[in-house]
User: Fold this.
Amino acid sequence: MTTQNLPAAQAKHDPISALLSQDAIKRRFEGMLGKKAAGFMSSIISATSANKELKNSDPLSIVQAAAVAAALDLPINPSLGFAHIVPYSGKAQFQMGWRGFVQLGMRTGQYKTINACIVYEGELVSRNRFTGEMEFDENRRDSETIIGYVAYFKLVNGFEKWLYMTIEEVKAHGKKYSKSFDNANGRWKKDFDVMALKTVIKMLLSKWGILSIEMQTAVMADQAVVKKDGAYTYPDGTGSDVVDGEITEGEGTGDEAKTNEQILEDFAASIPKEADPKMVDAFLTKVAEGNKKTVDEVKIAAASDPKELESLWRIFPGWCRSQANNKKTSEDKKSDPTPARFECIHGGFVTAEICKDCKDLTKDDGRCPNAPAE
Assistant:
């Protein structure tokens, strides 16, 4: 079933199909996927139809989440485990699968191998916290009891790294960064092992791996609801669950990250109270134009870095003074009644008014060739 052949009656009663039938949406996916766009858009409809809660979610949020997967060229078929569209409180989230991170890593050509697996009791032989080296032996398995999860990669240049989390650490991580951790219908309850494997490989690659632009996007977009302007919000948690890739023993991953909305609120609170709102808007627009960014991107970047925020507001008063001076100079020129003087070709300095009767007036505009432009 393709969106091009979708019956009009079905599109009318199926919001997601109707949305995908719009020319602008079609062009967007075709621009990212080319000939594969029709098949991908059909998979969006299939994934939505198979999930009652997702079917009742905001259609635009479904399309936005799917667009992230399309941009990363990852299928959203749940059985493949590369990427998922997950419903949460009436919205659709984009979620990476652990296989999706492996896929993006291998595309870079920098990785010789990437893997993640479950660790059973007895398999962990040794673990060196200082070098990060680990030794596993599946032949030493004592039981089917799961004790942890490990991710590993080796680069083509020989560099290799492991990351191991006990099952207790993974649970602490999930509870801290997912509001739906205890939800009986949530992915942590239904697919704990899969979520645990994604956690360790995402943490490992974020801290030690070589991250392409696609991989950076995947890390930031994971578990996000994508707004119409492309900004990420994290209704199921506090934002990206990777903070400098660091794992605090027994506590998940460290300090909570803020959403873009929270960062923008922080920026608004940092604006000097005596500042003219119109001047602030003009100043930020000028900064954004100079850096080829949107105003919101400037605000987020500044509010995310205390030094940059301090520098921005330190520059602001001087910029305001320069604008005031420019305005005064312009007004002075307009109010100056003194006509512009220039040197006449016949000698002496005159004005255009005095020169009106000169025999050398030009035929085109009635002004002396030496007279300054008005």
